[in-house]
Sequence to fold (337 residues):
Amino acid sequence: MLKKKNSYVVAIVGATGVVGQEIIEILAERGFPISELVPLASERSEGERIGYNNKSIIVRKLTKDAFKSVDIAFFSAGAASSKEFAAAAVKAGAVVIDTSSAFRREPLVPLVVPEVNAAASSKHSGIIATPDCSAIALAVALNPIHDAARIKRIVVTTFQSVSGTGKKAIDELAGQTVALLNFQDIKTSVYPHQIAFNCLPHVDAFLENGSTEEETNIVNELRKVLGDDSIGVTATTVRVPVFRCHAAAVNLEMEKKLSANEVRALLSAAAGILVYDDPKKNLYPTAIDVSGKDEIYVGRIREDESVPNGINLWLVADNLRKGAALNAVQIAENLIQ
Fold:
C-alpha cells in the first residue's frame, strides 16, 4: 500500500511517448506533490531531456532496477513493457498505475475510472489498471444512466483518432496529408491503408470471430467498470483521419424509460461530463471543441423510437487526456488522499 507523505517519488515509464508526455503535463497542471520525477524509456531515448515545472530532466533507461525509492509508477509504454517491468516496480515498493492492456482482464487487478468506481482502487495488490480510452469515456457517460434506469444493451460505434496508435501514426497522417495536397505519392507503414482523407473500420488486430481486439476490449472493460456482466454490449471501431479525440455514436436500451430531457439532466449533474447539446444552434461536440479538455462532451441526446426504452447519444473525449493520462493521474490523486 502507498505510504502517506507530503510528496512522492514518481516514475513515468514511456516518458517520451505521447501518453507519457501528457501524464507529465497533467501532473504539473494539477500540482501533484512530487519530490522527484523519474522519467524512464527505452535505450534509444536514454539521455534525452524532458521538461517538467520549468526544469529539464534527463530520461533514464528502463530497467528492473530503475524503481528504487519510487512511490508511484505510471506505465504508458505498452503492454509488453508493463508485463516485463511492472512486477519489478511493485517489488521495489511502488504502486503501478498502468495505462496499457496488460492487466485489464486480470480478475485481481482493479480496472478504475474514478468517476465510476473509485473505491476499487483500494483493493489493489500493487497494480491498478486504467481501461481502454473509449471504454473510459463510455463508462463516465453511461454510468449515471445505468444507475437511474439500468442499461440492458449498448450498441456503440467509435471514431478513433490516430493519436490512439502513437506518435508514428500522427506523423503518418500529417505526412500523407501534406503529400496528397502537393500531388505527391504517399507512404503507408503504420496502417494497412491510407489514413489521410479516409476511414478504416479496423482498430487493433482482428480475432477469429471477426471482431477486433479493440472492440472486444470495449465490451469486456465497460462491463467490468460498470460492475454488470449482464449488459449486452456490441462495438464497432473505426480509425478516422483526426489527430486527437475519440468520438462514439451510442444507442442504449434500458429497463426503465428516460426521456431525452431526463438524460440531459442526469448527465449535467454528473462529474466529468459536459452536456453540449442544442442542435437548433448547431451545438454538438466535435474533436476541435474537445481537444485539450478534461470532460466527456455529450450531445445529440434523443429518444430512439424503434424500441420502448431507447436513447441515442454522441460523445467526444480527448483520448490522450481523460482517455489515458488524466484518468491515471486521478487514480493517483485518490491514492494519496
